[in-house]
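Standup notes
- DV: blocked on the single-chain target, sequence here:
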Amino acid sequence: MDKSLENTPQPAGAACDVLIVDDNPINQAYFSAALAKAGFGTRSAINGLEALDIAGKQRFHVILMDIRMPLMGGYEATQTLRQGAGPNCHTPVVAISAEPLPAGQDHLFADFLIKPVSKQDLLDVASRFVLKKPSEKPRKTIQPSAKKAHNAAATLNPGINQQKSLAAVGNNPEIARRLYAMLVQELPGQLQQMRELNEAGDAMALRELLHRMLGSTSFCGAVTLGQRLREYGHVIKNDDSTPEQWLSALRRVEQAAKAVLETNNAAL
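- DV (later): unblocked, structure below
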């Protein structure tokens, strides 16, 4: 990582704290909610192109940059940002990915967070890079008691590991419920897209879809669904896998997703 970026002074004047760049709306909601509750201001972009447009008009103290995104990924966006002369050409950029950074890319980034990103790691990064005046210290977040968190978990989706989902969002059931609702809303369309890509044998597009879905399941505690998605990913990466094996792995994903959707509907 480029350590020189960590201590780059930010220009004087009004600036938003954090720009969140991620194509997954569940990831965006998680980052935004966790940071907002700690007193940080945020804006969001769904890909590198949108991030460059926003970053060209408003200054930020730090940019959280997902690496794999459609249209323009995080590496290309950060490289373009550094080559420009806009208000964020020296702003620290923190890479976020479910996989290690490829060799030769880490010099662009001030730090790196591996998905799933814990709330503590997220707040540590924000606190390190966001320059606050003494009167602008982040608000202290009051965490629900263990008993309250446990009782709240009973109202959440039984098809999801509730302890993991609550731990991922700092024992905040309100954020957990929001992420659950978004996951349930997205799943049917994602499964239909997965079936179509599986039938077409489009391994590259399937890997991109699985990458997005794994990010969602990790924040929501959908452990079984996440395991089935990873198994499916291993099958399609194997050049010797047969169409029957692809279909079998897809069926296991569908069963896990069905359990999540059915238990959610039952809870409602």
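- Follow-up: The two ends are 46 Å apart (CA to CA).
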